[in-house]
Amino acid sequence: MAKANRIQNRQNKPIKTGFHRKKKTGRGNFVVQDEFAIQAQKAWYRARSIYKLLEIQERFELIKPDYVVLDVGCAPGSFLQGIRNIVKQNTIVGIDLKPCKPFSHKNIHTIVWDIFDYNNVSQAVTQIIWSDQFDIITSDIAPNTTGRKDVDQYASVELNIEIVQFSDRFLKKWWNLLLKVFQWEDFNDLTQQIKKRFTDMKVYKPRACRDSSHEVYVICFEKKA
Ligand SMILES: C[S@@+](CC[C@H](N)C(=O)[O-])C[C@H]1O[C@@H](n2cnc3c(N)ncnc32)[C@H](O)[C@@H]1O
């Protein structure tokens, strides 16, 4: 392989990294497909983001087979696919403003809702698991981007502060929260909120995050109250 970098796919085969190609999406439009996007397509994953979750899981073992999991901002559903590889029996709930294509696995439930509409989210969730408290919350939510890095990064921090507050209600005490954020000047505003509520936190950038992006994942360990 030309490049030293390798990651493992679902079948545990090494895949090439360090190349990309352009895919035509419409009249005159192209998206750049990197090795993660190409590999995700081959493995029938719904998005390349799964490789970020898989790497975080390999490193931190956040998700265990007996957990009840909430994935916020779940569409199109690749995180849910990754979680289902670990949680085979227990309930996995995904929430997004957009619908996901149905899953064949009976333990994956998706809800189309704004996660900040707490009362309706709680009502929808309790119909599935008889409680609105989860063993872990994963979030890959991103704000609508404007193309202006400072604006987008500020919006991402604000959104994540709200997700930390969301965890006050929907995450069990002593359990963990995974966030995605664009790290920039306002990042300290977020970390202050996390430190108030969680025992520890770690910032981690998986290899599947694009080099040009300030995107990182924040693992918040052990909610205090
Ligand atoms: C990067 S995508 C998530 C990709 C997903 N993790 C996967 O692996 O397929 C971000 C998602 O966050 C959702 N989102 C943004 N704000 C939201 C909100 N307030 N409530 C629910 N979902 C939201 C968007 O609709 C979008 O689908």
Key traits:
225 residues; alpha/beta; Rossmann fold; 2 domains; seven-stranded mixed sheet; two-stranded antiparallel sheet; 11 strands; 30% strand; globular; binds S-adenosylmethionine
Report on this structure.
- The chain is an alpha/beta fold and 225 residues long.
- It has two domains: 6-42, no CATH class; 50-223, Vaccinia Virus protein VP39 (Rossmann fold).
- 32% of the residues lie in helices and 30% in strands.
- It has six helices and eleven strands.
- The chain has helices at 35-42, 50-60, 78-84, 118-129, 149-170, 187-197, and strands at residues 6-8, 14-16, 20-26, 29-34, 69-72, 92-96, 108-112, 134-139, 171-182, 198-204, 215-223.
- It has a seven-stranded mixed beta sheet, with helices on both faces. The protein has a two-stranded antiparallel sheet with strand order 1-2.
- Strand 8 (134-139), helix 5 and strand 9 form a beta-alpha-beta unit.
- Helix 5 packs parallel to helix 6 (187-197).
- The longest helix has 22 residues, at 149-170.
- S-adenosylmethionine is lined by residues 46-47, 49-50, 73-79, 95-98, 114-116, 140-142.
- Residues 46-47, 49-50, 73-79, 95-98, 114-116, 140-142 line the site of S-adenosylmethionine (SAM).
Q: TL;DR?
A:
This protein has about 220 residues and is of the alpha/beta class. Helices cover about 30% and strands about 30% of the residues. The chain has 2 domains: about 5-40, no CATH class; about 50-225, 3-Layer(aba) Sandwich (Rossmann fold).
